[in-house]
Amino acid sequence: QVQLVESGGGLVQPGGSLRLSCAASGSIFTIYGMGWYRQAPGKQRELVASSTSGGRTNYVDSVKGRFTISRDSAKNTVSLQMNSLKPEDTAVYYCNADILSFSQGLSNYWGQGTQVTVSS
Questions:
Q1: Structure confidence at residue 103 (pLDDT)
Q2: Among 75, 88, 69, which Cα is nearest to 23's?
Q3: 8 Å CB contact between 117 and 11
Q4: pLDDT of 76 higher than 90
Q5: CA 41, CA 53: separation in Å to the nearest integer?
Q6: 107 with 49: CB under 8 angstroms?
Q7: How far apart are the C-alpha atoms of 28 and 11, rounded to whole Å?
Q8: Rounded to an integer, what distance in angstroms lies between the CA atom of residue 37 and that of residue 47?
């Protein structure tokens, strides 16, 4: 059974930093794209940052220059370093990945979500 487990959310003041981490586990053969989404109350879930297996990254305009996505292929992890946080970054953040596993073939997976609150 493949799982994505996130960690690192919390409460931070405006201008502060947080680092989110996501670890994939299970009978994994290959991980393709990985990314972070967020959903604020009353809003649709949006893609924040993504990383291809080849290392290409993409960011939503609102976080460019502040957030950095990184992957450790050996450990099957993806992280999101968030700097200069703003109140509008407050949301539940979800890890997402396309994973080829021995048991389930190629499927898309979501983590359980981690709350990030930016407030003074």
A1: 87
A2: 75
A3: yes
A4: yes
A5: 31
A6: no
A7: 33
A8: 4
Look at the chain and count its residues: 120
pLDDT tens per residue, range 8-40: 999 999 999 999 999 999 999 999 999 999 999
* Structure token pair of residue 84: 């200069």
Is-contact 86 48, C-beta < 8 A?
no
Question: Which residues in the chain belong to E strands, given as ranges?
Answer: 3-7, 10-12, 18-25, 28-39, 46-51, 57-59, 67-72, 77-82, 91-101, 105-110, 114-118
pLDDT (tens digit per residue) in 44-59: 999 999 999 998 999 9
The end-to-end CA distance of the chain, in Å, is 40
Cβ-based neighbours of 31, under 8 Å, separated by 6 or more? 24, 53, 73, 76, 97, 98, 99, 100
